[in-house]
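Hey, quick one: can you model this chain's 3D structure?
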Amino acid sequence: MPRVALFIPCYVDQLYPSVGMATARLLERLGCEVVFPEDQTCCGQPMANAGFADDAAPLARRYVEVFRSFDHVVCPSGSCTSMVRNHYDGLLPASAGLEKVKRSTFELCEFVVDVLGVKKLDGRYPHKVGLHQSCHGLRELGLGTPSELVAPPGSKVAGLLAGIEGLELVSLTRPDECCGFGGTFAVVEEAVSCLMGRDRIADHVKAGAEIVTGTDVSCLMHMDGLARRRRDPVAFRHVAEILAEATA
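Sure thing. Here's the predicted structure for all 248 residues.
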């Protein structure tokens, strides 16, 4: 039985705790022993993205201290996972602990497919679903194939969803376009961010999606707020919630 430490991002902890609980339930159903280290804090991504490396470094050190004893760390966020794997080198000196946590930290769907070896989940979810492929997971973790690459298309997240009975993945005009959130980008470039988000929502609505899902609560939150203001006929749910509900 794999022993898995949950790393829960700030958005999930503060605003969407149901996503963390769904992640734990799904992993337990797949035979994992799930633990939650209570000393964990933010991964430091907001500070690093804003250019405050000195403020991000203590949080990166804390992450290494908390999680270096675990062989598997699972996070329901592509962007936070990518922060650990791809950007801690610029904040911390090289060490065995740093290298270990980089190797052992996985996004949820990535862990299910690549580590547990699960390609298909037994479950049912009778809805039309649109998949939003967030930028960090797609382009920094390789959860899918970006359209700008001349390579066979594929998506680990879409593969898991497509195997669920009754779940229909809708076809989008632009399947991997950014939603416009981008953390501080949504604050400093609010107008552009909102226009990008509305474009993504319109693509999903036109395709007939009842529910939009993805690996990052931040992107889903951004689009959900825009959709509710315009009363667009679509809901937003993290992929962990859909997979946990489908396999219940």
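One thing worth noting: DSSP finds 13 helices and eight strands in the chain.
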